[in-house]
Amino acid sequence: MIPPEGYATAKSLAAGLGLENDKRILLGFSGGPDSSALLALLADEGYDVIPVHINHMIRGEEAERDELFCRETVKKYGFDGVFVRRDVPNEAKAAGEGIEAAARRARYEVFSSVMREKDVRLLATAHNARDNLETLILNIIRGSGPKGACGIPQTRTCPPGFVLRPLLRVERDDILAFCREQGIEYVTDSSNFDDRYSRNRVRLKVLPELYSLNPGAAGAAARFCEAISRDAELLDAIAEKELNARRTGGGEIDLSGLEKPIAARIISAAAREAGANPEFSHIDRLAEAAATGEKADATLPGGIIASMRKSRLSLRRDTREKKKRQNGPEPEKEEENV
Question: Terminal CA-to-CA distance of the chain, rounded, Å?
Answer without folding.
Answer: 52
